[in-house]
Amino acid sequence: GFPAPPSRPPRRRRVSRQIMVGSVPVGGDAPVSVQSMTTTVTADIDATLQQIAELTASGCQIVRVAVPSQDDADALPVIVRKSRIPVIADIHFQPRYVFAAIEAGCAAVRVNPGNIKRFDDKVAEIAKAASEHGVPIRIGVNAGSLDPRLLERHGKATAEALVESALWECSLFEEHGFRDLKISVKHHDPIVMIEAYRRLAARCDYPLHLGVTEAGPLMQGTVKSAVAFGVLLAEGIGDTIRVSLSAPPAEEVKVGIGILESLGLRERGLEIVSCPSCGRAQVDVYTLAEQAQAALAGLDLPLRVAVMGCVVNGPGEAREADLGVASGNGKGQIFVKGEIVATVPESRIVETLVEEALRIAAERGLT
Ligand code: SF4
Q1: Ligand 1 atom 6 nearest Cα
Q2: Is any ligand 1 atom within 6 A of the Cβ of residue 280?
Q3: How sure is the predictor about 186, in pLDDT bands with cuts at 50, 70 and 90?
Q4: pLDDT of 215 over the 90 cut
Q5: Tell me, what DSSP letter sits at residue 115?
Q6: Listed residue (168, 137, 120, 122) closest to 64, CA to CA
Q7: By the 8 A CB rule, do 331 and 343 touch?
């Protein structure tokens, strides 16, 4: 007979240079990292550090802060010192804040050359300061603020225009022997964005920061980012990701981690496999799944937990899970690896799942 196809085709990752963003390697064989950006006024040091702490707790590995004013630049040394994850300064209009950020010890600086006046003249100085401090630079090209010269040539922010802009800026740094660069070419349309990153990936070996810009509110932004990153990461393109949402930044991190987990690029933490519910359901599956998620998430265990609405398909569907429940007649049958280990009243389903999860974790030496 025919050999069974592999369950997951081998994924060839694009070979990129590795840079260090503080303690986090980006590119090369480093795991794809998840980053986000604070929404606080950076100069409000307490609020910014509070949000960075929340992001860190949610799994964010690199954080970016906006630096639109001198007060923000002045806040950087304290923020950098107190943050537990590397801090990137995001600079749009003022080259002098680039130097301030480098001096402040930021792990990297993001510049948007299209937005920095006479950027080309400043590159020599920026490259010198950055290399003296071992600070990489992200060239962050954005469809909404493309270099006017390229906008004129291409008529609009096409994939090719974004790529040309990024590679042109890189070439300015290369002229000064500076290659600690990473690049993003963001567009709000996933189709253009995917095309831009594909072209960029083929034409340079810099690590790539994936992002769909202005992706939208939670639901729309999640879908756009998951589709765009999914396509690219499955092709081996992308070294660090930032999901942009019009929602609290910790949500961006959760979505980013979920995308990497879904692609097998990161070991899963808790995964709730819940049925969509149907006319056979004998409990409120949505509520039960949410309660189970809430109760188990805090345990921070790599478990797959099935929540099934009925006993017709429940046990079968739950067999692949570490643990599960199939509900019926006001009771829940609790399964471990598809075998019933307990039958409990509905009110005790969630606590029994937690007990069993802890038992499994103890058996596997996870606690
Ligand atoms: Fe319907 Fe039961 Fe399947 Fe849930 S497990 S979708 S309730 S048949």
Answers
A1: 277
A2: yes
A3: very high
A4: no
A5: G
A6: 137
A7: yes
Q: What is the dihedral of CA 4, 302, 241, 290, to 10 degrees?
A: 110
pTM of the model: 0.87
Does residue 306's CB lie within 6 angstroms of at least one atom of ligand 1?
no
60 labelled ligand-binding: no
Is ipTM over 0.95? yes
Instruction: Please determine, for residue 341, whether its predicted confidence score (pLDDT) is greater than 80.
Output: yes
Contact between residue 73 and residue 101 where contact means Cβ atoms under 8 Å apart: yes
The burial class, CB within 10 Å (0-12 / 13-18 / 19+), for 152 is exposed
Residue 126 belongs to what H/E stretch?
Answer: helix 119-133
Among 13, 30, 34, which residue's Cα sits nearest to residue 257?
Answer: 34
Which residue bears the tokens 């399964």? 335
- Determine phi and psi for 23, rounding to 5 degrees: -90, 0
Residue 201 has what DSSP assignment?
H
CA dist 191 and 221 (Å) reads 14
Percent of the chain as helix, strand, coil, to the nearest 5: 45, 20, 35
Position 1 pLDDT exceeds 60: no
Q: In whole numbers, what is the pLDDT of the chain averaged over residues?
A: 91
Q: From ligand 1's centre to the CA of 326, what distance in Å?
A: 9
Select the more confidently predicted residue: 101 or 5.
Answer: 101
**What size, in residues, is the chain?**
367
How many CB atoms are located within 10 Å of the residue 363 CB? 10
Residue 331 phi/psi, 5-degree rounding, is: -125, 165
Pocket flag, ligand 1, residue 200 (CB < 6 Å): no
pLDDT (mean) for 18-44: 97
